[in-house]
Amino acid sequence: MIRRVTTPALFPPPTYSHASVVEAGTKLAFLAGAVPLDEKGEVVGAGDPVRQAEQVVANLREQLLAVGSDLEHVVSTDVYVVSNEPPVLSAVWDVVEASGLSAGPHSSTLLGVASLGYTGQLVEITATAVVPEEARP
Fold it and tell me: Are strands 74-82 and 2-5 parallel, antiparallel or unpaired?
């Protein structure tokens, strides 16, 4: 259902694929950005991008479950981090990698940005996932 492609003519990516191909007729879920808010709508891990990344991944997991998918079926993400420092971006990427998202591995873009939507928010992840056939009604 998902074919992950690493292009031999390009650099070998460490924990992601260059492309993911999904066959026509497959159900896809396009998820809104997962943010580091708890069930009360409060930012978790103020000032701590790693803690926020953990919360974002937990929230992303919940979004996926709600549509009948999971981290293994994510084909693409964009990871936004409020920072211009490579060590901070790498620390957030380490959380993404440890989460199981890289098991595919999925196609991903890691971005340092100036700001995100909620006051104190440092991390956000958008995702596209396949909804497996067995999860469909």
Answer: unpaired
The answer to whether the CB of 44 falls within 8 A of the CB of 31 is no
Report how far residue 137's alpha carbon sits from residue 122's, in angstroms, rounded to the nearest whole number.
Answer: 36
The neighbour count for residue 14, using CB atoms within 10 Å, is 9
| pLDDT tens per residue across span 32-86 | 999 999 999 999 999 999 999 999 999 999 999 999 999 999 999 999 999 999 9
Buried b (16+ CB within 10 A) or exposed e, 69-98: bbbebbbbbebbbbbeeeebbebbbebbbe
Q: What share of the chain is helix, strand, coil (3-state, %, to 5)?
A: 30, 30, 40
Nearest to 99 by CA among 68, 59, 130: 59
- pLDDT tier at 106, thresholds 50, 70, 90: confident
CB neighbour class for 39 (10 Å; exposed up to 12, middle 13-18, buried from 19): exposed
For tokens 């999860």, the residue is: 135
